[in-house]
Amino acid sequence: MISLSSIAVKTEIYESANSLVYRGINKHDNTAVILKVLKEDYPTKAELTRYKQEYEITSSLNLEGVIKAYSQQDYQRTLVIILEDFGGESLQKLMQESVGKYRPMPLSEFLCLAIKITEILGEIHAANVIHKDINPGNIVSNPETGQVKIIDFGISTRLPRSNPTLKNPNIVEGTLAYISPEQTGRMNRSLDYRTDFYSLGATFYELLTSKLPFETTDAMELVHCHIAKQPLSPSRVNPEIPQAVSGIVMKLLAKNAEERYQSAWGIKADLEECLAQLQHKSTISEFPLASKDISDKFQIPQKLYGREAEVQTLLAAFERVASTRDRETVGGQKNVETLHTTSLQSKITPLATTGGTPATQWLQNQRHLLQRGEPPQRSGSKIQN
Ligand SMILES: Nc1ncnc2c1ncn2[C@@H]1O[C@H](COP(=O)(O)OP(=O)(O)O)[C@@H](O)[C@H]1O
Ligand SMILES: [Mg+2]
To answer: Which pTM does this prediction carry?
Structure first.
């Protein structure tokens, strides 16, 4: 247990590889506080920076639905963040402890909770912050007061207004069972606030069904599932879950961000429609989803539209290059590089595999050879180092 002069530390409530969390009382004003301690005797500079960033983002978000960060203190060689305690517990804990009420959650309670969480997420996004780790462990609820708050901005990102996307991540951050396909870093896609909608979908899925979209605990298999597998819809897991509610969750879990909801307000509107129907007629009929889903963020789709002629020209060129040894046809480094770096690559990759070597791999090989001043190879051959 840690010891601080200004806080009486009471109980430990959580321990992970990175953090220790305690409940305590601020001796000056007798308020309840939460202490989050970076659990390292000798934390690295990067770990300290990340904790400082967590404090900076949390304390800058002055929102009712975001936990308040009161202060940050050095403690021995590590750091403590002092947070608000509003008597809540994480949804994860509540699901584990009160089996009857939270596993699975009654529909009306789920809808009320889901509306609150979605609204908070919308406010966080409006402040240009992507949470990046939405899951039941990072949503805290006080069932007695009905208050809900989002915590743990440990891997969150604040984005500039002008360019609200992040480049394709090269390390996997987040909680794997809830992580979006693009956040796995294996999708050649940049990241934006819609990553949180996927994790929100996985969270809703669990609240409704007591199951995860993908139940495997194997990390690589989970990543594969998020990228390539369709989860069973909540209404297939439990036929009592209305199609409309199930549809909302499945839309959030779409692999492509473009096919998800584009705004928290659009999600909230559909959840509110479900709740209104449930309250008025005790059932929820199907209705067209996302009719109020208008994003205030400018997004350039990462999919290519209306470029069929160019795609065909490039594919034809690729086939020509692939089927000849003629260096002139290959066209030298510039063309190969253009082919390789263009976003059309994502279209070509699944379409063109020649002689068993995927196209991008082949193109990479060609570039490698050209860089070494060697003639390019036929598409079936592999690079020799
Ligand atoms: N303000 C809080 N109120 C209640 N519980 C909290 C609070 N902050 C953290 N916790 C508990 O501690 C756990 C871990 O906190 P979190 O900030 O998510 O740490 P980590 O970065 O290790 O995931 C949460 O899942 C929750 O159970
Ligand atoms: Mg957490």
So the answer is: 0.80
CA distance 217 to 95: 19
Q: Minimum-distance ligand to the CA of 33?
A: 1
Q: Which two tokens stand for residue 303?
A: 């999919």
pLDDT digits (tens), the chain, 385 positions: 888 889 999 999 999 988 999 999 999 999 999 999 999 889 999 999 999 999 999 999 999 999 999 999 999 999 999 999 999 999 999 999 875 667 778 999 999 999 999 999 999 999 999 999 999 999 999 999 999 999 999 999 998 766 667 776 766 778 999 999 999 988 878 899 999 999 999 999 999 999 999 999 899 999 999 999 999 999 999 999 999 999 999 999 999 999 999 999 999 999 999 999 999 999 999 999 999 998 777 666 666 666 778 778 887 887 787 777 555 444 445 444 444 444 444 444 444 434 444 455 555 555 555 555 555 544 433 333 3
**Any idea where the domains of the chain sit in the sequence?**
7-84, 89-281, 308-371
Distance of CA 321 to the CA centre of its chain: 39
Among the CATH numbers 1.10.150.120, 3.30.200.20, 3.40.50.2000, 3.50.50.60, which is that of 7-84? 3.30.200.20
Which alpha helices (H) appear in the chain, and where do they start and end? 45-60, 91-97, 99-102, 107-126, 195-209, 219-228, 234-237, 243-252, 264-281, 308-322, 327-330, 332-341, 345-351, 359-371
90 alpha carbon, closest ligand: 1
Is the C-beta atom of 85 inside 6 A of ligand 1? yes
Assigned CATH for 89-281: 1.10.510.10
Joined together, the tokens standing for residue 21 give 């969390």
88 Cβ below 6 A of ligand 1: yes
Closest ligand 1 atom number to CA of residue 19: 22
